[in-house]
Every structure is written in C-alpha cells, then in structure tokens.
Design a protein that fits this description.
about 160 residues, alpha+beta, Beta-Lactamase, five-stranded antiparallel beta sheet, elongated
Length: about 160
C-alpha cells in the first residue's frame, strides 16, 4: 500500500483543479480521487448523483482485489481497470502509487479519449503528490526539532532531580 500523507489546502486546491480539467477535457460525467483505504480525497463534475462513500470504498476494494489477481498470475499490478456498462463506464487508474483516480463517463466520450486525458492528468497529479510528500517530510523533521524536550540536556535533568 502507500504511506499516509498530509493534504495541505494549497495542494487540495491543485488536486481539485486537475480533476476539473480532466473532467472537462475527457468529457466525463464525474472524476474522483480516492485514497487506497477507500476515502474520497477530491472530486469534480456531477458527483451529487453518486453515493460517493460507497463508490470510494468499493473502488478501493476493487483495486485491492485486482492487485491480488495480478499477483496470482505473476504481474506486479494492473494499473488500469475499465468497467463498461450499457450507459455509463468507469475508468480506474492508480496515481503515484498513492491514490486511485476514477473517471465515470458515458457515450458522449470514448475510452480512447479518457485514457489519453488520464495519462496527461496523471503527470499533473503525480507532481502534486510529490509536493505533498516533500512538505510532509519537512513537517515531520520540523516537528522532531520543535519538541518541547529537544532543548533539555542531561545536566538539566540532573539539576531538576538533584543528582
């Protein structure tokens, strides 16, 4: 799976903008970004018509099951999944090994267009996740230095307890 990450407001806005752009360029109904634990991170488009909580958790389960299938046949992973319905279709892909991108589209678009636009959006999303990872590393290093106990020495402890 992936390490937990901190989602800062600036990066959240960048993620939302990337999803809006993808939805528009792919002529999709809705686009969702979900973490691998099944929690929705961001979305764009006609999202109100979907049970987003169920969609997120079922998608994460689908990806986990598919990862199991891949390993059974000797593949590292299946990074793209496609489900075709009579009216709506779902394109699922892994982003930066950290999140799941879900694109829901109908016959106003095509699988080829969605795949092309998802590849382009993946580049943008990976950059945003990289910034998030760098900020998270800096934040955790800063938190260690900012500990209220970091300035206390052994001499201070000895003086406190009279030894």
């Amino acid at each position: 799976m992936c390490a937990d990450f901190v989602l800062y407001e600036e990066e959240f806005k960048h993620l939302e903008e990337a999803l809006r752009r993808l939805r528009q360029e792919a002529n999709a109904k809705a686009v969702f970004l979900i973490d691998k634990n099944g929690q929705q991170i961001a979305s764009a488009g006609e999202v109100e018509q979907f049970d987003t909580t169920s969609l997120a958790s079922l998608t994460a389960g689908n990806v986990a099951a598919t990862d199991g299938l891949a390993k059974l046949i000797g593949e590292r992973e299946f990074s793209v999944l496609f489900h075709e319905g009579q009216q709506d279709h779902i394109h699922i892909s892994i982003v930066a090994k950290r999140a799941i991108l879900v694109v829901i589209f109908d016959d106003r678009s095509s699988l080829g267009l969605v795949r092309l636009r998802v590849k382009r959006a993946n580049v943008d999303l990976e950059k945003i996740f990289e910034v998030m990872a760098q900020k998270g590393e800096r934040g955790s290093q800063g938190a260690a230095h900012a500990s209220p106990f970091s300035e206390i020495t052994d001499d201070d402890i000895d003086a406190l307890f009279g030894e």
